[in-house]
Specification:
The chain is an alpha+beta fold and 424 residues long. It has one domain. It contains nine helices and eleven strands. The strands form two sheets. Strands 3, 4, 5, 6, 7, 8, 9, 10 and 11 form a nine-stranded antiparallel beta sheet that branches. A two-stranded parallel sheet has the order 1-2.
Length: 424
């Protein structure tokens, strides 16, 4: 969990979807009784940040278009709203139409623009297109990242298009998975520096999808537990330790190509430029940890709690000497040298969801791992961690895996077009 790699498009009409697009009254997809478009803050877009840039304190917009989806190598924002959906329609064309609508909504929300006629000023007898809670807020570096789960490929005649790398995750020792917090036909990861902007985005995508998809489970996150910006201070997890010291940086092009992005020869063609996401909800036994001695805590991780230096070293980013750590230390077991070079990009968040009814905090880490192939990334690392001393203090209670398609190239493109278009 810390200091290493793991642990704990177009609108419905096919137009450009800009501010001059037809009214929602003219587009059945935008104006149906069960559909309402979401929006982010009213007003024009702020300055645009790109992957690898340092975070903009003014709440700049992140560029939506590109070879890869934003929200992966993008500098990690402060807040998360992650949602997994089940598909309820059996009509492939209808679902593809929803993906077009979602893409246009995402394009506008990430730019800080309202969608459709906005939250007010429209027809009084109809629900507004925008729920309105983000009016007046900055874009806050909102990114929206979509993924397709294994179960989606059992629908719409897509079985032969399921990537070989999109495997069902094995059951790992110690897993206590809640079915109601696992799986999903598709997911959307919303990251932003303002929690209301992130929640607003998921809320409005769910509204647009009414009758076609339903939220299966969701997770709010705060306090990023990893960073893709190497000059930023390494964040800490709820155990108080620095987390993600050796994470891949958003500027490390060669490492991203090697470990994160799906290559042209990896297959299938529609996934080139994409990635694979493993999401794990990890419950931390906070009360037990808080009664554990400092020495044992540091032995469990293999780093000191203050500086974050590995055992026997002085600075956080000093190269760890793995044999100086205990055999079951987390850093030692998760390190690439212990896993034939296996490396992933971490993008996790802390969470607290009240109490469990027994006076204990329901708190932990919502772990997000991006990789080129789970079979050579998360899976071997997690198997290695079966002997992790940290397992006494954590438990994996939710799990999902998704294929993350490449980015939306331009205004005529949409999420999943190469998978769902009729010519595919």
């Amino acid at each position: 969990m810390t200091g290493t790699n793991t642990g704990t498009g177009a609108d419905a009409s096919g137009g450009t979807g800009d501010a001059r697009a037809p009214s929602r009254r003219a587009l059945l997809g935008w104006g149906g009784a069960g559909l309402a478009l979401g929006a982010a803050a009213a007003g024009g877009a702020a300055a645009v940040a790109r992957d690898g840039d340092a975070p903009d304190p003014a709440g700049a917009a992140v560029e939506f278009h590109g070879r890869h989806q934003a929200g992966i190598a993008t500098p990690v924002q402060d807040r998360l709203h992650f949602a997994a959906f089940d598909v309820t329609t059996d009509d492939r064309a209808e679902f593809a139409g929803l993906l077009r609508q979602w893409t246009e909504a995402a394009r506008r929300m990430t730019a800080g623009r309202p969608v459709g006629e906005g939250a007010h000023g429209g027809l009084a007898e109809a629900p507004p297109d925008d729920t309105g809670e983000a009016l007046g807020l900055q874009p806050s570096r909102l990114t929206l990242t979509i993924g397709f789960g294994p179960s989606l490929f059992g629908r719409f005649g897509l079985a032969d298009r399921r990537p070989e790398a999109l495997v069902d995750l094995p059951r790992f020792p110690g897993d206590n998975l809640d079915r109601d917090r696992s799986g999903g036909d598709l997911c959307v990861q919303a990251c932003a520096d303002d929690p209301q902007v992130a929640v607003h985005a998921i809320r409005n995508l769910a509204r647009i999808g009414f009758g076609k998809v339903v939220v299966r489970w969701s997770q709010l996150g705060f306090g990023k537990t990893s960073s893709t910006t190497p000059d930023a201070q390494t964040p800490r997890n709820l155990f108080g330790f620095k987390d993600g010291t050796r994470n891949i940086s958003g500027t490390e092009t060669e490492r991203l190509e090697k470990f994160v992005w799906v290559g042209e020869k990896d297959g299938p063609e529609w996934m080139a430029g994409g990635s694979y996401l493993v999401a794990r909800r990890i419950r931390m036994h906070i009360e037990t940890w808080d009664r554990t001695s400092l020495r044992e805590q540091e032995d469990v991780f293999g780093r000191d709690k203050g500086e974050g230096a590995p055992v026997g070293k002085a600075k956080e980013r000093d190269e760890p000497f793995l044999k100086a750590m205990k055999p079951d230390a987390h850093v030692r077991l998760a390190h690439p040298d212990s896993n034939a070079g296996a490396t992933i990009l971490r993008r996790g968040y802390s969470f607290t969801d009240g109490t469990d009814g027994l006076g204990r905090l329901d708190a932990g880490l919502f772990f997000l791992a991006y990789q080129r192939d789970p079979r050579t990334g998360f899976i071997p690392i997690q198997r290695s961690l079966s002997a992790d001393a940290l397992n006494e203090y954590i438990q994996h209670v939710g799990s999902a895996v998704f294929a993350i398609p490449p980015g939306v190239r331009d205004r005529d493109d949409w999420w999943g077009r190469r998978l769902f278009s009729e010519e595919a």
